[in-house]
# Entry
Amino acid sequence: MLLPTIFGENLFDDLMDMSFPTFGDFDDIDKKLYGKKAAHIMKTDVHEHDDHFEADIDLPGFSKEQVKLALEDGYLTVSAEKGLDKDEKDNKGKLIRQERYSGAMSRSFYVGEEVTVEEIKAKFENGVLKIDIPKKEPKKQIPTNKYIQIA
# Structure
């Protein structure tokens, strides 16, 4: 039986997907915000070199101003946020289907507490955020004597 489709997707996909969430099953939260492509958002490749790590993060549809990097307690957090201007009026006609998303997302990476903000270099180009993170050895802690001397 042939089913009608719009833009290559089945109209009845969502109706036939009758999965019931269990306690702790929060996988659908991203799908509500980002749609069926939620699994492909903020995909990251990390390459290790002799003296640094290189991370490439896909952020299609975002501008440089919508992406923020923060370093706190050894964690590098990449966040991106955008909204669609619903008040914007144009002469394109009536909106039938809207698939572009708006919202916020973030991802954190542990880079070590020895890395400083000044040492991390980032560049945003063609929807890809490239981050260079130096390799630093953790400071060796001198073991302290926890024994109490008996007199």
The radius of gyration is 23 Å.
